[in-house]
Amino acid sequence: EGNENTKGALIVVASATTGATTGAAVGLLAGPAGAAAGAIIGGAVGAVTGAAMHAGNK
Q1: What tens digit of pLDDT does each residue of 10-54 get?
Q2: Are 13 and 44 in contact (CB under 8 A)?
Q3: C-alpha 56: how far from its chain's center?
Q4: pTM of the predicted protein model
Q5: Which of 6, 13, 15, 54 has the highest count of CB atoms within 10 angstroms of its CB?
Q6: What highest taxon heads this organism's lineage (predicted)?
Q7: HSE (CB half, 13 Å, CA atoms) of 22?
Q8: Three-class SS of 24-37
Q9: Of 48, 46, 45, 25, which is closest to residue 36 (Cα–Cα)?
């Protein structure tokens, strides 16, 4: 059970990191403020996606 939670946390972190990176890259086209907003939004979306993926894998 603990192992599942660890795996889930890693999936969420990885997805959030990927989302933040992608969001920042896209947002950078709109300037520094866009990059910051993109990273925040992308990270949040990635975390939710990762959590959903983990829940679906159980």
Answers
A1: 999 999 999 999 999 999 999 999 999 999 999 999 999 999 988
A2: no
A3: 17
A4: 0.83
A5: 15
A6: Eukaryota
A7: 12
A8: HHHHHHHCHHHHHH
A9: 25
